[in-house]
Amino acid sequence: MADRLVVLYRDHLPPNRARIESLAETVYATEEELPLFLPGADALLAWWPLTSAVAGAWPDDPAKAPRWVHVAAAGVEPFLFPALTDNPEVVLTNARGVYDRPIAEYVLGLILSLAKDFPGTWEHQRRREWRPSDSERIGHRTVLVWGTGSIGRAVARLLRAVGMRVSGAGRTPRATDPDFGVVHGPAGLREALGEADYVVLAAPLTPATRGMVDAPVLAAMKRGARLVNVGRGPLVDEQALVDALAQGRLAGAALDVFTHEPLPTESPLWEMPGVIISPHTAGEVTDWRADLGELFLDNLLRRREGRPLRNVVDKALGYVVDG
């Protein structure tokens, strides 16, 4: 018997839905409709992942809860509520891998934009001003990639390929890593922050990482360094970041994610010099929805055939663990 699958969506449906429907008894639900369809379903595809609706619609009776939840995103923090995480029968998977290369390319683009002052060049062009100026090299600059999952690894590989000196920061220190070289643990983090020209945040949002870049961390960064955040907005204390930028301790920041999205119009970040803002689009490329759909379809086939699922999230940690 085919699985009873609920697809939670908002503006878009999966592009390969005909193939999904051939493998599962499928119903499509908005956030408002989810409480009607989720009880008794075998599986949930959270095609719209930036939602709190799943926690509210989750059945009180564990026997009526889905046994598999797939999130069409790398981050799964809205799905880490007790009724799901405490139920050992529920498997949670995510879209790990889909965004790795696009986000790595985006990070490289942001670093180049900051080093070459592309925003300044474009502003001078807009004003029809001819202002020659020197720019910075990125070769041999030091980068600390905070977050050693698959996105962080893709970032590290690409930045090393263009001649940057890369290290990582994670829970477990190690002296030899194929992508980062050295991974700094908590004990070595302050020294690493003080040496980095760029700090790239690629960590998941968990209780342990929320607010990890606070005023003391920003104060520990090298004077004139730049912060790039392609992880999650709440990793950063935004007021502390505004203060560090305003006081000139940091030379700039490139931010794709924010504590509140869309970023409120009154945020001072919009107009701060040296700051690049993008609307949570680092991983979105022309065919990203097709890639998301194919990953889910592969997992749906694996489930039907009794094979292990890809990207099983450790629900205690909040992310997929390497190995």
What's the quick description here?
By secondary structure, this protein is of the alpha/beta class. It has helices spanning 17-21, 34-37, 53-57, 82-85, 100-116, 118-126, 150-161, 189-195, 215-220, 238-246, 288-305, and strands spanning 3-8, 24-29, 43-46, 68-71, 91-93, 142-146, 165-169, 174-177, 181-184, 198-201, 225-229, 250-255, 275-277. It contains eleven helices and 13 strands.
Describe what you observe in this structure.
It is a single chain. The relative contact order is 0.13. It is built from eleven helices and 13 strands. Helix 5 (100-116) packs across helix 7 (150-161). The mean pLDDT is 97. It is an alpha/beta fold. Strands 8-9-7-6-10-11-12-13 form an eight-stranded mixed beta sheet, with helices on both faces. A five-stranded parallel beta sheet has the order 2-1-3-4-5, with helices on one face. The chain has two domains: 3-97 and 286-305, Rossmann fold (3-Layer(aba) Sandwich), CATH 3.40.50.720; 100-277, NAD(P)-binding Rossmann-like Domain (Rossmann fold, 3-Layer(aba) Sandwich).
The low-confidence parts are none
| Quantity of strands, as a count | 13
CATH class type of the largest domain: Alpha Beta
* Class based on secondary structure composition and strand pairing: alpha/beta
CATH topology of the largest domain: Rossmann fold
String of helices and strands: EHEHEHEHEHHEHEEEHEHEHEEH
- The dominant shape is globular
* Adjacency order of strands in the biggest sheet: 8-9-7-6-10-11-12-13
